[in-house]
Amino acid sequence: MTTNGEETGATGDETTTSSSRNIVIIALAVVVTILLGVILGFIVSGGLSDDPGSELAVDTTTTAAVTSTIAPTTAPSSTAPPTTQVPGQVTITAIEDTYTDALEPEDINGLSPVLEIEDDPPEIKTALVRFDVAGVPEGETISEVLLQFSTVSAGSQVAVHLVDGEWNEAETNATNAPALGDRVGIILPQGEQGTLAELDVTGVVTGPGPIDFYLTTLGDDTTEYASRDAGAGAPALIVRWGG
What we know:
Shape: elongated
Order of helices and strands: HHEEEEEEEEEEEE
Oligomer: single chain
Number of helices: 2
Strand content: 25-35%
CATH architecture of the largest domain: Sandwich
Number of strands: 12
Low-confidence stretches: 1-12, 47-80
Number of domains: 2
Radius of gyration: 41 Å
Helix content: 10-25%
């Protein structure tokens, strides 16, 4: 039989246990609240910023580099004149070139890696080169223009003329070649392969647009220059302004 005293003691023990549990729960809640406050404070204070010193920082430099690496590129238009520009100067490479051969009058040599020039009848070869002058700032006056060829084999002197008539590298051969225009000047032979053969054509090139040159030889030794299809040393115009 349980007495009233025993019942009272049991009830007291249960009350004490319940109070202890409440204290533990409250303490856990306080700890969780503190931890959440620390985390939120870390975020707000810039813990997830782009600061390179932070372990969680985003490396924007690396991201930009990767983006640049995989960015798609656009191939240049085949009709645009290839140019290389530095202050006060632009280098313009040929947009068309070919040579004709009197012994092979039907041959079209627009894709040949060399331009052959010879005058040793019946072997007569002449070359045609076209540029599209561009890149000179508006309002600037051209002060100097140099016509350059990379020597493949040096022969006789080469006479440079303007062109009187139409032509293109895809169709022109000895049977339909245009006539010679006025002579512009003479290029002296250069001894070593890769040496630049050069002629000042400042008085001929005065502004933007296409300009054609005809190359003939003044002797019977064959001269060869690299063409625009050679991969390096293509015919070029060096156009300067100002100064």
